[in-house]
Amino acid sequence: MNNLGILLSGRGSNFEAIADNVAAGKLDANIAVVISNRADAGGIESARRRGLKALVVPSKGKPREQHDREVVAALREHQVDLVCLAGYMRLLSPWFVQQFPNRILNIHPALLPAFPGLEAQKQAVDYGVKVSGCTVHFVDTDLDHGAILVQKVVPVLDSDDEHALAARILEQEHIAYSEAIRMVLEGRFTVEGRRVVMKPGA
Question: Of 98, 107, 122, 114, which Cα lies nearest the Cα of 170?
Answer without folding.
Answer: 107
